[in-house]
Amino acid sequence: MAKQAIWKDIAERITRDIAKGHHKAGEKLPTEVAYGTRFGVNRHTVRHAISALVEEGLVYTRRGAGAFVAADPVRYSVGKRVRFHQSVAEAGHQGSKELLSMTTRPADAEEARALGRRKGVQVHVVEGLARVDETPVAHFISVFPAARFPDLLAHLQTLNSITAAFAACGVQDYTRQETRLAAVNANATSATLLNLKVGTALLRSTNVDVDLDGQPVEYGRTWFSGNHIELTIDGSDTNI
Amino acid sequence: MAKQAIWKDIAERITRDIAKGHHKAGEKLPTEVAYGTRFGVNRHTVRHAISALVEEGLVYTRRGAGAFVAADPVRYSVGKRVRFHQSVAEAGHQGSKELLSMTTRPADAEEARALGRRKGVQVHVVEGLARVDETPVAHFISVFPAARFPDLLAHLQTLNSITAAFAACGVQDYTRQETRLAAVNANATSATLLNLKVGTALLRSTNVDVDLDGQPVEYGRTWFSGNHIELTIDGSDTNI
DNA sequence: CTCCATTTGTGCGTATGTATT
DNA sequence: GAATACATACGCACAAATGGA
Question: pTM here?
Fold first, then answer.
């Protein structure tokens, strides 16, 4: 072993163990005391090593619970046709969506504007949670014009897929008209749903989807957990 | 004072002292023992606070010498009008870039990886601030391989434009290989530069630019103020 | 639900090493 | 070389959060 600080040796050792697959993403690492016993060092020395790994982003800790291997952020491509499942699947993860609520109510000003309707028209509102490998990574609210899709919610109940429900309502295909991205601090609702602390940075995506005739069919807002999701934009067509 | 760890209080206190100008760039801070006496805490508690400031980049330490203020409060302006981010300028506002500092130092692991170099190779680092209508909206750090562009910084001083400086270094054209977006909470450095509170959500863009041969020429990170910037991606322009 | 063992977070005290001045 | 100052390491104690009985 190179002549250097013990805590660096331990940090490298743990890094190698993770790289070798001895500890997989999300798994709990041995406790500080266990490492201290194994390496014959003080708990503080182990803490120094682990805190360096936390700083690197390789590990995260939860007081009272332990230290865990951090999952690589899932790279979620932004584009015309890419859907959530497809994106996470490409990244080699298991994606799932849970619908939390479905309601029908009058549209507020912004929702109406985005959908090209008048304020107060009835809209279906679907709220849900997206998970990757069981970890909640995004919270979304989608708004649909109720007049055009009277049976959308019924179809959603059974199909559990917006794309499939659209198909059942006669929309064979739809595309992303526009995506707007902003960073916001998590409020109590989002923080609870995403299992984060209030104030954590979230990536908010606002989008309008249109059918093949260019008619708006969905106005959606999604709050991505900045810790778990990284949006990627491919190529030179954007200059950010 | 908020109910929080003592070391955090001390870190914030020192940060404020630096911000107020009590300690200027390059100046030596009081010793750990002196801080410990002043605040009535153990030297280790002071060390914890200072190590957090080192991590933020606000302070650096030299064993045997002391702790010093790292940030340069005297920001010398190199350029006025330079090419600005397209996504900002197209909104019809007045954009400007200010170069805050230029340095050459060894690359860290991530910078080296992004540029396809080995860790520790010399890189030019340019840090700057982008404004829209005089309001700071983005903070950026660009990293270039020094071996390939030995005279880049000199050209930047006179040309005030990265594109022009590249041209002077023999790079006729370059393209955006990839853009990754994430949401992060502002640290002390970004918060100060962007005139925001620590913890405010920022949109972080990470990109790698390559020359026509596909060789990485620039690794850049930009922190956009979430309050002032909303990135838009036109669906018809992205083909993924 | 409470209770309790576990685990990380914070803080203090001490000692020694190593680089700077 | 001597004094100073940061770096590393050990030990002890308690706080705070977790998670299971």
Answer: 0.73
